[in-house]
Structures are given as C-alpha cells and as structure tokens.
Design brief:
single chain, about 90 residues, mainly alpha, about 60% helix, about 0% strand, extended
Length: about 90
C-alpha cells in the first residue's frame, strides 16, 4: 500500500504508570483509604492474580494491572533487602 510504513510503532507507558514502587504506594493508599487491609489485599492479588482483591478506588485496580506480578514481587523483595542493608 502506498504511504504505509512497515516500521513497528512502539507504545510507551508513562514512567509513573510503570514504576512498580510508585504503583504499590498508590494501591496501598487506595486500599487503606477504603478501609481494607492493604497487605492482605496485595498479597491476595499477587498469589492469585485476581484483580478483584484490589479496589477500583482511585484507579488502583487499573494501575496495578499495568505491572506484571513478577515485577511487583521483585520490587517488594528489592525494597525489603535494601532496608536490611541500611
């Protein structure tokens, strides 16, 4: 087809949407504001992959689904271990 390109177009998420640490902080705040136990809910989501563990309040459910669960776990382990080294 004339005028078309065979180059791949890349979609890049905004950095704040792809930073696992920031996403976890925002999800934690939303869960806490709604009166849930943030730790229990996040662990439930990480173990099951079921997004209904995360409230839709403040867009938390959509936000957490943008990050792979293994990336979230990696961030949690990294953060925990870095605190041990302080």
């Amino acid at each position: 087809m004339p005028g078309t390109s065979d180059k791949t177009v890349y979609w890049r998420n905004r950095p704040e949407d792809r930073n696992p640490g920031e996403v976890l902080q925002k999800v934690y705040a939303a869960l806490k504001e709604k009166g849930y136990s943030p730790i229990d809910q996040i662990v439930g989501y990480l173990l099951s992959g079921d997004p209904t563990y995360i409230t839709s309040h403040m867009g938390a459910r959509n936000l957490i689904r943008r990050i792979e669960r293994d990336e979230l776990l990696e961030e949690l382990v990294r953060s925990y271990l870095e605190k041990l080294e302080e």
